[in-house]
């Protein structure tokens, strides 16, 4: 398993970049310079619930 958190922002003012999120069923991580997109295996182990406005599994 790859640690995609290394591609997230670090205390970025754009808080949604500080943790991976789901878009169209894929896990996305970005720091504003690079973006990593990978299939979602359904475990949501990458997601930080503090940054989800809705249940993370349903975030688009």
What does this structure look like?
A hairpin with a 4-residue loop joins strand 2 and strand 3. With 60 residues, the chain is mostly beta strands. 0% of the residues lie in helices and 22% in strands.
Total of domains:
1
* Mean of residue pLDDT values: 77
General shape: globular
Helix content range: under 10%
Strand and helix order: EEE
- SS content category: mainly beta
Major β-sheet annotation = 3 strands, antiparallel
Key descriptive features of the protein:
single chain; 60 residues; mainly beta; three-stranded antiparallel β-sheet; 0% helix; disordered C terminus
In short:
The chain has 60 residues and is mainly β.
Topology:
Layout: E1 21-23, E2 26-30, E3 35-39
């Amino acid at each position: 398993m790859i640690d995609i958190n290394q591609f997230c922002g670090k205390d970025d003012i754009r808080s949604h970049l500080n943790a991976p999120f789901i878009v169209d069923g894929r896990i996305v991580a970005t720091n504003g310079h690079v973006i990593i997109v990978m299939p979602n295996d359904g475990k949501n182990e990458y997601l930080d619930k503090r940054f989800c406005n809705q249940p993370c599994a349903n975030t688009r």
